[in-house]
Amino acid sequence: MTNDLTVGKPLPAILRMSLPIMAGNLFQQFYGMTDTIIVGRLLGKYALAAVGSTSSLYNMILWFANGVAGGFAIILAQKFGARRYKELRQRLALSIMLSVAISLLVTVLSLLFIGRILHVMHTPAEIYPDAERYIITVLAGLTATVAYNMAASVLRALGDSRTPLFFLIFSSLLNIGLDVLFIGPLGWGTAGAARATVLAQAVSALLCVLYMARRYPVLRMDRSDWGFVPADAAQMLRLGLPLGFMGVMTASGIIILQVAINSFGPVSVAAYAAAAKVETLFSFPLGAYGMTMSNYCGQNYGAKNYDNIRKGIRDCILLMCVNALVFMVILETFSTQIAGLFLSAADAEVTALTAQYLHIIALFLPAFGLIMILRNSIQGMGNPWVSTLNGILESVCRIVWTIWLIRYGSFHELCYVNPTAWILAALMMLGVYEFGVRRSLR
Prior knowledge:
mainly alpha
């Protein structure tokens, strides 16, 4: 069932939309979390470091493809909010064609250069073979991952955030079972963890597409909807490509940071791999508010309900701050116990470094949530360039930190890289919203 976000009070609509997205983000991160825990427990710290050392590279490629798809979904939300259903179906068909073409191109290019990239990243020799096997497998399955995220984005554009959650829960449970099977009895090592993730994502994508075709009459396309109109494609790419570029810039800063971490040795690489998974597990639910506001603002912008947009942003920020405070308390109280999930008691040094990172990062989660809400709200109103520039600022901050880390830093200084980038990016978005966007909405 579609959910019209242009009617009623903003806060109930935002809650109905954001809670399933939040739960979905948690389960999606459960994929990576499960890989990391099972790999660390069954294969040891070097295999854990191998998986972790490639995560930033995979994120860069995935964030580009998903950023483009997310930009397409904003146009779908605007068409739905304006009740232009024929144009909605035409843009959906065009989104599918463009997403498939982009994901296949990105997959081929990344596989061609992956060996060279791993060398440039100074991947330690002890973990290089496992890292190469893992990243090649997940990159080969990139199209399946993009297909699921595209299908989920379309459903959210129509206000349905519950259906992607149900399919993702099923796929998460499937991923756990496949991880244990592929790594344990079959002995496929890190490649087994990657295969489990790709297969689970493919099942999730297939289920989403079948459900959409069956349950949403507004999305049922005929032959006339599948025409390729260059002007429409250019409009979609003008919105999608800047968001994809922003994903690349954000992830590039993280990749460069990974180079510095790799220079610290396998122990630091393993600690950061575990800590980054936990950081993502707690930060992505806050990112759910951003995904909600992208669709909320998109529908209301299409319907010209500008007052709803302003009130919705205010209510969502307050809701996010309460959520972030709860997460801060959990991480500050249980950092050591959470870090201990990833490795055996014999790896006490890795566990201690992981807990140190989590203690520091917990204090800055509200800044991350604020960035996500304001970026996505402005994107939903059809302006991707502010978000892109904000992503560049965040990346530049990480790069400057990394240059210093490589020469003088230690793991302790590493813990402040993301917080510093978040604070600067949040301040920029607050200024843009307060002195530009909010006044125009009046």
